[in-house]
Amino acid sequence: GIKEKDIEEKHQVTTFEMIEWLLRAISQNKKAVVKVTEFLVV
């Protein structure tokens, strides 16, 4: 299996980290996220 240490060394971005980043971006700038979301949906 993949060890956490190996992931840290390779600097891989997990799905959880991406979601965490999105949540942080939403809290900082909701208007910008809405625009991005609309762009992705269309």
Automatic annotation (TrEMBL):
Full protein name: Polysaccharide deacetylase protein
Organism per entry: human gut metagenome
Organism phylogeny: unclassified sequences, metagenomes, organismal metagenomes
